[in-house]
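Example complex used in Figure S2.
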Amino acid sequence: MEYIIIGFLWLSILLYLVLGGADFGAGIIELFTSKRHRYRTRSTAYHAIGPIWEANHMWLIIAVVILFVGFPVIYSTMSVYLHIPLVAMLLGITARGTAFVFRNYDAVIDNMQRVYNRIFLLSSFITPLFLGMIAGGVIAGKINLETNDFLSAYVWPWFNWFSLTIGLFTVALCGFLASVYLIGEAPPGDDRNSFIRKAKQWNVIAVFCGALVFIASIVESVPLMQWIFGNPVGATAVIAASISLLALWLLISKGKTVVPRILAGFQASMILLAVSYAHFPNFVILSNGQHLSLFEHQAPAATMTALAWALIIGSLFILPSLFYLYYSFQKDRHKGSFVEH
Amino acid sequence: MDNFLAARSQMALSLGFHIIYACIGMVMPFFMAVAHYRWLKTKDIAHKNIAKAWSKGVAIFFATGAVSGTMLSFELGLLWPNFMKHAGPIFGMPFSLEGTAFFIEAIALGFFLYGWERLNPYFHWFTGVVVGVSGLASGILVVAANSWMNSPAGFDYVNGQYLNIDPMKAMFNEAWLSEALHMTIAAFASTGFAVAGVHALMIVRKQNVHFHQQAFKIAAGFAAVAALLQPLAGDIAAKSVAKRQPAKLAAMEAYFHTKPYSPLVLGGIPNEKTKEVNYGLEIPGLLSFLVYDDFKTPVKGLDQIPIENQPPVAITHYSFQVMVGLGMFMMLISILYLIAIWFKKHWIYSNWLLKLFIIAVPTGFIAVEAGWMVTEIGRQPWIIQGVMRTADAVTPMPGIAWSFYLFTGIYISLSIVVVFLLYRQILMVPKLYDKPQDDLTLSQA
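Predicted assembly (786 residues):
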């Protein structure tokens, strides 16, 4: 049963990274687009994410619920020692979600739009930054359960070069995912070409940030190299991701839209696989070299069984309707009209 | 501000706001579905416009409810890690099901909001109903989790260990049904009165009268039925509290000294030092009657509960009085409204009845907040009744006061923006929906 649950946990983190990430990325690329082109970037992005953005963010809730029901010690340890970045991320989620809806449902279009937009763009950047820092904090090995010092207990676990670079890498990854996704959403011509350019730019930035993560891991003495290249799965995943990256460049240059999306999602999943496989079943790495393992810290068997069934039955409801939602609006988009809200 | 007090304040604040967003978000879809159905049946464009106008409210409240709910799922751990460490596996079942319900709600809302003129009309209508049903299911599941804190079940507590966990038993604990019933009806009554009152105001101001009259009738209908059922649900809930949490009941009633023919105290100022209630109106025997259906059997008073296990009396009592008083007021309006519908048709849009509804706009939500304070403060000093104290659950991280100030700022500004947006929506009704042909061009755009 625990394997089913861990599978769902991994999948929901991945889906949040890819779908939620593309969603954050739409805001990030708009933030970094020159004022002149912003409006068009925005309208493409809005049409693409409007109907589905709520659903994309549900994966975070699923992951959190799995953690607190199935792995309560891990959840409570993270809540205590990563309190500050979690609050920052929550503020980002709140600001972003509400600003997005307010932007679309304000009956009067006036200067308030600029306020909503500013908030939306900034929080699109801040939220994945802190998400990445939290992820970095979980594996950086700086969570110290024994100390009473405020900084070592509550700040240094997540505020270090390693976590910070992972945060930046996450932001770049979101920008990359979004621009690849939006290529197919933009009408062929200038708009589409601008997204192709963006996809390439963000890809370069992501690779650069990835390199920074490796440098930071050496500075902070996190054995990242060993995790990823020390086992065949991690090494294969990274190599597969690199090869698919070449294919992706080739295909987007040719103006293909669907396969690049799959490839970009594949790359994100390979990165997640490479990082999570190395220390599986350990989830949180502590400063004294100890780990919080998913196996050792799982909830009692009765809870795990019930949770697994809840997830299986839930996904039978969720996945088909989610696919139908994506399908309906994809199909519809090709028919044209997409106004009114 | 002390850390424990800050954590409690932050939790109270977050839930206090979330409960309003959630109530509206789970009830309005039903109003919307009724209006939508009437449009499909009668082809009266006003009903379509009402459904559309309400769906914007639903979207706003769903989003604020969703983000404040996301915050809460983290705050449980951020503020009460020790509670979650032990309670998570026991009472997590409703949360994992709620995840599904909430997800389906989000998907259905995506269909509904963006499905006008695109989906088959009846499938479109159906997605709106799914939004309501899954929203309601989420609400009931979350209340089931809360009821477990009041009525822990599904585990054995031996020497500080939580053994023999049974998540299903925990979910279907003794309190879940009475709490869920009371809360669901409260959501319908409070949202119904708030919405009906706003439309009543517009009718009194003679703006878009047909539109607002139709909207008013739908909301007022739901509100009236709910407000009439609520005393019944409240009675069931109170009897259940008396059985499970005598300390909470005694605090609600400010009932210090156990005696036969236990009195019900109306109003009054409880003095926790002298154990007296000043200026209250005592009705002998009524409390016994409400709890045991006879006037004589003594109800357990606060004097039979160790002082360290007693909740704060005064605030619990005041909150309870406010809730019951407002509930009675809403029931009265509901009776008048039903008389108007069945016997005195000319009352329906008479100014005095509409004005009563306008006064009642906030009453439902004040009652919801008061009732929620009764159940949460009345449970103190326990976070899990009789098992874990709230003070033992709080996070070791210092400086929660700062987090509390931050969240206060966020929630207040969020609420200001929501009210501002709704105000602008209502303001725009004449422009958006006045002439049917305008609407036609809008929907074709």
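Strands of chain A lie at 282-285, 291-293. Confidence is low (pLDDT under 50) at residues 336-341 of chain A.
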